Records
---
Amino acid sequence: MIKSLKGQFILSIFVAIAFVYSTFLNIDFTVDERISPVRILFFFIMILSVFNAGLLTEKYIKTKQKK
């Protein structure tokens, strides 16, 4: 587990970018007859990882402003 805030920030940004990249790499922009549960799971994880990266960004900026 990464204890430093800077390490968590960098890791969360990397994970968010990786999820966005992998999701958009595997997305079909055509209408499909059925919706894949795996696709829904990846979208949900992508949204959560980007949200988490945003929260850690806010926390990192606040700690830098206090110094």
---
Amino acid sequence: MRTENIVVCNVCGQKSTENENAVFVRAHKNGEEVDICTACIPSVIHGSGMVVKSNSEIEEELQDAAN
């Protein structure tokens, strides 16, 4: 998920501001663009797309963490 100038992994929730070496890949799930960090790619490839959260789910998690 992208918000302002920050990329957030739609699997683990890692933010691009938390790790300067993080690399994110843009993908599509259910017609929605999502971002996945390379550390989570194996869980998507060898597991299932079910681990990928929607952008609204990630936004909700970010709001909960801020409160």
---
Amino acid sequence: MNKLKSLFIITIALLISACNTIYVPPIDDYQPKNQPKVALVIDVSDELTHTHIGTTIFNNFTKQYEVDVKMKQHIFETLKKKLEEGANAEVVLLDSTLSNQRASSGFVFIKDKQWQFNPSLEAERNELTAKGIDVVISITETQTLVDMNCTQYGCTNFYAEGHGLYTRSFFGLDNYYAAASYDVSAEFISQPIDMGVMKSMLDLHSMHGRVTKLDLADPADHQSLDKAFFEPVQNGLTGYFENLGSIINKYLSGEFETSKKK
């Protein structure tokens, strides 16, 4: 997802947490397809990143590790299986350069309480719909907010620098998390619907939705981990994408979380 649209989604998430409501246009004319065609754009590293936050900033570090699983292929296969089983979808992989061709607002936006297509991407959208594609899901690895420490003097934000392991150590007490550090955009392009603004997607991509707590034994050296240490991390990321697939399946079947007409 591009930076401006990411900011828009984050703003919506903050508004929801503050007032627990936001207007999302109703979807009255959507007809579920027997075999929707879903295109995935996956731009991630095959390496996993370990982001460590220590007691002081001098203990912080970031390190990348090669693992046995090819993450891009693994993400594709996980989502493909989930979408095929849940929505009878046909799932294809698109080149990640599509992400760079998209304008700042994506294919779909909300204006005057209505769903609208982005006119600046009409040519790209027509090219995809000509291939029978109904939905585009874009997954991009990026720095994401995964933890926050708040006191009476304000909050300190902590970020995972990439998908993988996030560890937080404070005076010898260690906590371990699988960190799903992704921007995810999910849009219908056969008719204008942005799934990213709906509650289940916002919950999944909230700070707490991105992390999975892991029960791991403390390693001898946090800066020298073996591949086996990352197996639970990979399982945590797999669970994240299975949850994403379940949410997408719900929307493909027409179960949308939208506001009532006003």
